Amino acid sequence: MLLNLRTLTAVELRRNKLIAVFLMGALGLELTTVAPRASVVILVGAVMAGILPNDKVAVLWLMPATLLVGVLFLTQPTWQMKGIFAVVVLLARFGLLQDKPIVQSATLPTKYTYDLTGLSRKDKQAFQTAFATGYNDIQIINDLVKADAQLQAIADRYQFELFTDNIMATLAEKPERLVLADEFLYNHVPNVLKIIRIYMTVQKQTAVSQFADEQLEQAQNTLVALFKEIKVDYHVLTQVDSQALSEQIAIAQQTMYNRN
Predict the structure, then answer these.
(1) How many angstroms separate the CA atoms of 22 and 43, rounded?
(2) How far is CA 171 from CA 121, 130, 134, 229, in A?
(3) Average pLDDT for residues 213-219, to the nearest whole number?
(4) Any transmembrane segments, and where (predicted)?
(5) What does the alpha-carbon distance between residue 149 and residue 176 come to, in Å, rounded to a whole number?
(6) Which of 41-56 are b and which e, b meaning 16 or more Cβ less than 10 Å from the residue's Cβ?
(7) Disulfide check for 185: which of 43, 134, 172, 237 has CB 3.0–4.6 Å away?
(8) How far apart, in whole angstroms, are the C-alpha atoms of residue 160 and residue 228?
């Protein structure tokens, strides 16, 4: 059973390290009369691991390396036995311990119908994270926009809610097109959200200077440009379907022409 060190708290990791240090020390003392050099190596490694402040480095690298070196200094076992001991240490290190980020799948909104067949586990996780983040940002934008008449008018004029909803629905049905939505998910939507949040903060200030008024107007113009880009994002995402339709029409027309 794999033990991911990132699932342990700092206290748990320190406690487990000290237990391992104690066991290494006991092993080193046990080898004092049988293999003095191996005993010294293991005892020194145990002490260094005990005082090393980075517990992960101590558990993952220093202690296994110490045991491997200690195996080499064993006197009685044959080289075959030493090889077996070394393999056991390596299996314990790389077969039981790991230090990997904990990946949690994002929860997809139930509003859409998804077709994730054919995606690998890694691709599914990437899609779920990107989709859920984008959807949450869009919902926040819609809520903020409704609180300001000017922003609401701009969003309605350029159909922000309609186009973003259509983009997300298309991605849900065809997640393989996620790569075509990079600009939308990682640039346009986040920038819209950042601008609107700052816009709302500045607008709520009681004493707004002429400079602030100019910045608010510039923010509105930038939002208009971003909303236009989101329209382009939608067309980029769906032009594949338009091309497929054109090709199918051409095939049908060619078939009818050949029959005539």
Answers:
(1) 10
(2) 17, 11, 11, 17
(3) 87
(4) 21-52, 58-75
(5) 37
(6) bbbebbeebbebeebe
(7) 134
(8) 9
